[in-house]
Amino acid sequence: MSSSNPTTDPASIVIAVDGTSGSGKSSTSRGVADRLGMRYLDTGAMYRAMTWWMLSNDVDVHDAEAVAAAAGKPVITSGTDPLGPTIALDGGDVSVEIRSDRVNGAVSPVATVPEVRTRLVALQQQEIRDALAAGSGIVVEGRDIGTAVWPDADLKLYVTADPAARAARRAAEEGGTDAEAVRASLENRDKIDSTKGGAAVPEGATHLDTTPYTLEEVIQLVVELVETTAYGTSGKAGE
């Protein structure tokens, strides 16, 4: 099977990619979407954009009632090109701002507020409907895609990796950050997600452990899974 000329028609396909931080799900999702000519949606960026808006407007992120009252105010727009995904807030691009340490430390309490989740899940579902209506299909990445956002996804993946591998990858992405410190941070994030119920494995999901694979190998594996889902046929990774 040629990876450069896939046979899969992605027009009616929704791929839900859930999993742990640092597992490679973002890079995999973008790569698969690019390979198959699909849209890509980073739902985590939407929660980060909401958090940045709260911080910028002096909303106490630890005051759930205040966050809930403001959850409907920001206008959040996602760019779904897998080669250059963007996130805009009230018309201005905030792709850089949402990755700041300030947002890192505030996103979890914001994301647990029910009104925030209800608002953003609705936006995410609309992005999926728009993609299907446009005939492009979509790869949606997050932590509750296959359980809450789109339980009827054509293909559900749950992506994980060995903790050491996850830490090494994330440290490399962050420009050589200490891997042990990153590992501790990732483990803490996993605990937070498990207690808020956002890291459940979706029913019917394919578990993909990326530890022994390169990024290109993982992308190829997922492309083959898409082909199996769409047509009942598949090749072998590396062909």
Automatic annotation (TrEMBL):
Single biological process term from Gene Ontology: pyrimidine nucleotide metabolic process
Residue ranges with Low complexity bias: 19-30
Region called Disordered, residue ranges: 1-30
Binding of ATP, residues: 19-27
GO annotations of cellular component type: cytoplasm
Cellular localisation: Cytoplasm
Family: Belongs to the cytidylate kinase family. Type 1 subfamily.
NCBIfam families the record matches: cmk
Protein name: Cytidylate kinase
Origin species: Nocardioides panzhihuensis
Taxonomy of the source species: Bacteria, Bacillati, Actinomycetota, Actinomycetes, Propionibacteriales
